[in-house]
Write a structure and sequence with these properties.
The protein has about 160 residues and is mainly alpha-helical. It has one domain. The longest helix is centred in the first third of the chain and has 33 residues. The N and C termini lie far apart (about 55 Å).
């Protein structure tokens, strides 16, 4: 009797934890979509990215830190923040090489960066990976990816 109850309890616990994590990720994605509309939105993205320690949340945190560069006046500080967080994204991709979302985030941040700090090789590699795998994603995530690409003025060819 106790073992049955224990397994049911564990199942329910995992279900709610999974649901909560999905909900947090959806909120994080919504926040990312509007983060370019002002400092408060970037701060909200940064706050939400601190709610979990998974690679995707770490990637959003690195991107949010890079987005805060816009509100920093010191050029050296901007470069330092960009370099540190760019290295974080690179490390996350090394450890999660098949994660389309992290590659998408890195692609977007480099696409929006000044040309002299863009990494064209990583950008091409990331975009190729995104285009090769976008159709393998669920409909909602595919729409999210397309919305991001449209928002950064990338022309999607169909």
């Amino acid at each position: 009797m106790f073992i049955k109850f224990f397994f049911k309890f564990i199942f329910i616990l995992f279900y709610f934890c999974s649901y909560s994590q999905d909900n947090n990720l959806n909120e994080l994605r919504k926040s990312y979509l509007i983060a370019g509309n002002g400092k408060k939105n970037v701060e909200q993205l940064l706050l939400l990215s601190n709610t979990d320690n998974t690679p995707i949340f770490k990637a959003y945190k690195a991107v949010a830190n890079m987005m805060m560069i816009e509100y920093t006046n010191n050029v050296y500080e901007k470069y330092k923040i960009f370099k540190i967080n760019s290295n974080i994204l690179d490390e996350l991709i090394i450890n999660n090489s098949n994660n389309l979302e992290i590659k998408l985030l890195r692609y977007c941040i480099h696409y929006k960066s000044p040309k002299f700090i863009q990494n064209k090789i990583k950008m091409k590699s990331d975009l190729d990976f995104i285009m090769e795998n976008i159709d393998k994603q669920d409909v909602i995530f595919t729409k999210y990816i397309n919305q991001i690409l449209v928002d950064i003025n990338y022309k999607i060819q169909n």
